[in-house]
């Protein structure tokens, strides 16, 4: 009986967390790219604190990048963190020995916090997936993005920007919420779209892994592609 009560309580807590996490995301999803960035700018000063203990996408992203780059190559490996937010992925990468980190992030309020991490040597205050950006082509050993493939954020076409920025033989690492790529999710055709990019000869799939507690109690999905 005690076990039943305690598991019912656990379910209640998990349901509350799921509601809370959906609320946070709804409040930053704008009608346009600039609207979304404006909302993140406001969130910037408290973003890290609000997610504390309930987000581990950044840790998993850095682990996945570290899996494809041997330790002795990390200090010279050029990494671009796309939709870098407050720099949480970069901080984790620096802890794993990466030293050549650059960031793209449109929201000024998020960038204010990112700059205090002092782990990025170049910052692009720009968007991906919406046309022009000034990120160099065929330049990075790794392009990583975490939490950016979200409705009203980076559209799936942004993956072509990631592939363009990475050099041939380099890697693109995409970490996002698993439910988004499932049937009925906002990115339900994402796997088909990635297959078309492979068919076009732009990249080859290295791995596709599910992991728990990406964001609150939601599972995460990590894709790794090698650029052709
Ligand atoms: C959920 S946050 C993730 C931030 C960071 N990667 C992390 O793991 O903490 C999503 C970020 O995507 C950025 N963003 C939204 N739309 C974007 C776009 N079209 N291009 C680039 N960044 C975008 C937002 O400003 C925000 O900082």
Description:
The N and C termini lie far apart (58 Å). The chain is an alpha/beta fold and 228 residues long. The chain has one domain: Vaccinia Virus protein VP39 (Rossmann fold, 3-Layer(aba) Sandwich). Helix 5 links the parallel strand 2 and strand 3. The N terminus is likely disordered. It has a seven-stranded mixed β-sheet with strand order 3-2-1-4-5-7-6, with helices on both faces. The chain is globular, with a radius of gyration of 17 Å. Helix 3 crosses helix 4. 41% of the residues lie in helices and 25% in strands. The chain binds S-adenosylmethionine. S-adenosylmethionine (SAM) binds next to helix 2, helix 3 and helix 4.
Features:
alpha/beta, Rossmann fold, 7 helices, 41% helix, binds S-adenosylmethionine
Element layout with pairings:
Blueprint lengths: L1 H27 L4 H19 L5 H12 L9 E5 L5 H8 L4 E5 L3 H10 L2 E5 L15 E7 L11 H8 E12 L12 H10 L3 E13 L2 E10 L1
Parallel strand pairs: 1-2, 1-4, 2-3, 4-5
Antiparallel strand pairs: 5-7, 6-7
Helix pairs in contact: 2-5, 3-4
Strand content: 25-35%
Coarse structural class: alpha/beta
**Which series of helices and strands comes N to C?**
HHHEHEHEEHEHEE
Order of strands in the sheet with the most strands?
3-2-1-4-5-7-6
CATH superfamily: Vaccinia Virus protein VP39
What small molecules does this complex bind? Answer: S-adenosylmethionine
CATH architecture: 3-Layer(aba) Sandwich
Distance separating the two termini: 58 Å
* Low-pLDDT residue intervals, each spanning 5 or more residues: 1-5
Largest sheet: 7 strands, mixed
Count of alpha/pi helices: 7
CATH topology: Rossmann fold
Mean pLDDT over the full residue set: 92
Number of separate domains = 1
CATH class: Alpha Beta
Question: Considering DSSP H and I runs of 4 or more, what fraction of the residues is helical?
Answer: 40-55%
Taken from the alpha-carbon principal axes, the silhouette is: globular
Radius of gyration: 17 Å
The tally of strands reads 7
């Amino acid at each position: 009986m005690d076990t039943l009560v305690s598991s019912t309580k656990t379910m209640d807590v998990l349901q509350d967390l799921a509601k809370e996490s959906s609320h946070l995301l709804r409040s930053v999803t704008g009608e346009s790219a600039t609207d979304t960035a404006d909302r993140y700018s406001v969130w910037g000063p408290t973003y890290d604190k609000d997610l504390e203990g309930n987000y581990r996408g950044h840790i998993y992203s850095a682990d996945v990048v570290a899996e494809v780059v041997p330790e002795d190559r990390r200090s010279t490996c050029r990494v671009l963190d796309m939709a870098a937010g407050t720099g949480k992925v970069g901080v984790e990468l620096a802890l794993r020995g990466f030293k050549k980190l650059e960031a793209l992030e449109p929201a000024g309020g998020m960038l204010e916090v990112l700059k205090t991490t002092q782990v990025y040597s170049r910052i692009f205050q720009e968007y991906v997936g919406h046309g022009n950006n000034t990120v160099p082509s065929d330049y990075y050993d790794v392009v990583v993005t975490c939490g950016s493939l979200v409705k009203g954020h980076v559209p799936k076409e942004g993956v072509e920007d990631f592939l363009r920025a990475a050099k041939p033989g380099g890697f693109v690492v995409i970490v996002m919420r698993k439910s988004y790529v499932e049937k009925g999710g906002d990115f339900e055709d994402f796997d088909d779209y990635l297959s078309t990019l492979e068919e076009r000869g732009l990249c080859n799939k290295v791995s596709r892994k599910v992991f728990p507690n990406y964001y609150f109690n939601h599972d995460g999905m990590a894709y790794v592609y090698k650029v052709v």
